[in-house]
Amino acid sequence: MAEIILKSVTADFPIYGNQVSFRNVLFGRVVGGVLRRPKDTGNRVIVRALDNVSLTIRHGDRLGIIGHNGAGKSTLLRVLAGIYEPSLGSITVDGHVSPLFDVSAGLDPDDSGYENIVTCALLLGMSRDEIERKMPQIEAFSELSDYLALPARTYSTGMLVRLGFAIATAIDPEILLLDEWLGAGDARFATRAAKRVEAMIERSSIMVLASHSDELIRQMCNRVILLDNGRLLADGQTTDVLDMYTRMNNEELPGKLQSGAANQDLDRISRQSSTAAV
Amino acid sequence: MQIDPMQRVLALNIPQQSARRSRYHIALIDMLAGIQAINIWSRLGWRDTKRRYRRTVFGPFWTTASLGIFVLTLGLIWANLWGQHPKTYLPYLTAGMVCWNLFSAICTEGSVCLISQERLIKQLRISYTLLACATVWRNVIVFFHNIVIYVLVCIYSGTSITLATLLFIPGFVLFCANAIWIVGVLGAACTRYRDIQQLVGSLLQISMFLTPILWTPEQLQGRMALLADLNPLYHLIAIVRDPLLGRTPAPMQWVVVLAITVVGWTLLIRIMTKLRHRIVYWL
């Protein structure tokens, strides 16, 4: 049984400007007190992308993550994928995780489609036999036919997405993580992709999807969490949380939302120690 | 035992109370799984080599050609300047340069081995050691392209294959074992401090002249002889170069290189334990 447990997970991103570098460490050591800056917290800019998030995701959960831009949705997904380890708190993941964030990562523009399929599939953890077995299925879904023998740089953006998507969805995932999938591609591809992902979800034990589309969340998820400024605001039934989110947006409209994402980010940077204002 | 280099085993179980121990465990898995994933890193390494061949006739042989011209022209001049016979000096210089080129490429490419894979690292949990191995493998392939020049020089100078030549195999394996930790350490350090990349470049330039590659240690007089013996790079190069020249490296050199290997890998394990989880935040 796949299961994910997050306990008070916090993710802090240090921001290194061009002035904070090797030089400072070097001179800090050499000159001693003169150039040394206040220890740690003093002047280092930290963006807290996730703030004390506790969450248990169990077998059968189809979890949707909603929230504004910069609320921490993608960071949370990447924490679940094991890409970012929490700065504070702990995470336990039981089960094979398949992230589907950037479908064209790992593609080499100079390699042919076939070569790229093998490389990417190996990177995703498939064995040679498995790739061999799934090749026809990947070929068919990508609909690239003869193009697969040509270097990937001759593909259009949509074709690249199709190829990447076909490879990434060929795995049999236990835990499937999706981040706003379906970037490019025409309408026909969009429906086919939706079908394929649904089939994939059927086979997986846990699915987590971050999306801005209420419709998609309603369609795919049986549980939704709402993130705001890195904090977990709500966790519950799909309709309840979506309704709450809509209400929140309506209330906030005059003030906060109009000021845009940039202000939110500044807000979050300076908000290190302020208490939660839910 | 086959370890999945990607998510499955690297799946993080970091209970806060024993975070240090589990980080050590993850560091070890990163290394073991990374090195074991031969099918992946060899493929990534070949892919980069193939890219150099694409749409060119000679591909990586262009670097071989420029190395050949360098060795031939400067080799003949220096042999004359230092009163050495070209038939002994040219093989020495060529073997040294082929090894040095490998070392220098490993350092410069090692510096960017994580930075250049940012997209991949942010897409899936991947072993950093695997990426280091791919970098080393790619340069090993280039090394075997360059060795062609050495073979030609040997034919010209009549350097023959001896039993000592067989020592090339353990020497080269040991060299590569060191290459992996060098790439790993530099990759992590350069991700955090981007200046180190520049520093490595300038240090390499100086080291090439300080290391007996263009000159032989025997040419040093008196106390200066220590310059060679105290230089770890000399021993690292020597265990590959000497067998190529048909000589047996001194036992002392094996000992020194083995010591470097142990120290280096210990350093890598320490860095991986303490900082592995931070690296992705620095990208």
SSE blueprint:
The complex is a heterodimer of chains A (278) and B (283).
Chain A lengths: L2 E13 L6 H10 L13 E13 L4 E5 L6 H8 L7 E7 L2 E4 L12 H11 L4 H15 L14 H12 L6 E5 L7 H17 L2 E5 L3 H7 L2 E6 L2 E6 L1 H33 L8
Parallel strand pairs in A: 3-7, 3-8, 5-6, 6-7
Antiparallel strand pairs in A: 1-2, 1-4, 8-9
Chain B lengths: L6 H4 L8 H18 L1 H16 L7 H21 L4 H26 L6 H4 L6 H30 L10 H25 L2 H16 L15 H4 L2 H13 L6 H32 L1
Strand order of the largest sheet of chain A: 5-6-7-3-8-9
Structural class given helices, strands, pairing of chain A?
Answer: alpha/beta
Task: Give the N-to-C terminal Cα separation of chain A.
Answer: 34 Å
Question: What are the secondary-structure elements of chain B, in order, as H or E?
Answer: HHHHHHHHHHHH
The geometry of chain A reads as: globular
Give the number of DSSP strands of chain A.
9
Global morphology of chain B: globular
Q: Report the span from N to C terminus of chain B.
A: 32 Å
Oligomer: heterodimer
Give average pLDDT of chain A, whole number: 76
Outline the structure in words.
The complex is a heterodimer of chains A (about 280) and B (about 280). Chain A has helices at about 20-30, 75-80, 115-125, 130-140, 155-170, 185-205, 215-220, 240-270; strands spanning about 5-15, 45-55, 60-65, 90-95, 95-100, 175-180, 205-210, 225-230, 230-235. By secondary structure, chain A is an alpha/beta fold. Chain A has two domains: about 5-95 and about 225-270, no CATH class; about 100-205, Rossmann fold, CATH 3.40.50. In chain A, helix 3 (about 115-125) packs across helix 4 (about 130-140), helix 3 crosses helix 5 and helix 4 (about 130-140) packs antiparallel against helix 5. The longest helix of chain A is centred in the C-terminal third of the chain and has 33 residues, at about 240-270. The relative contact order of chain A is 0.17. The model of chain A is unreliable at about 30-40 and about 255-278 (pLDDT under 50). By secondary structure, chain B is mainly α. In chain B, helix 2 crosses helix 7 and helix 11 crosses helix 12 (about 250-280). Chain B is globular, with a radius of gyration of 20 Å. Chain B starts with 6 loop residues before the first helix and ends with a helix. Residues about 1-20 of chain B have low confidence and may be disordered. At the A-B interface, strand 1, helix 1, strand 4, strand 5 and helix 3 of A face helix 1, helix 3, helix 6, helix 9 and helix 12 of B.
